Amino acid sequence: MEQPNLFSYTDFRKYLADWLEVRREVEPGFNRAEMHRRLGLPNTRSYLPDLLAGKEMSGTFLERFVAAMELTVEEARFFRVLVRFNQATTTEERELAFDQLVALNRTPRTILDPRHWRYYRDWRHGAVRALLGVHDIGGEPKRVARLLQPEITEGEAKDSLALLSDLGLIEKNEDGFWKPTAHTLSTGEGARGEMVRQLQAQQLRLVERAALKPDGQAGQVVATNTISVSEEGLELIRKRVEQFRSELRSIVHKDQAPAERVHLVTMAIVPLTKADAKVSSVEKAA
Question: Does 245 reside within a domain?
Answer without folding.
Answer: no
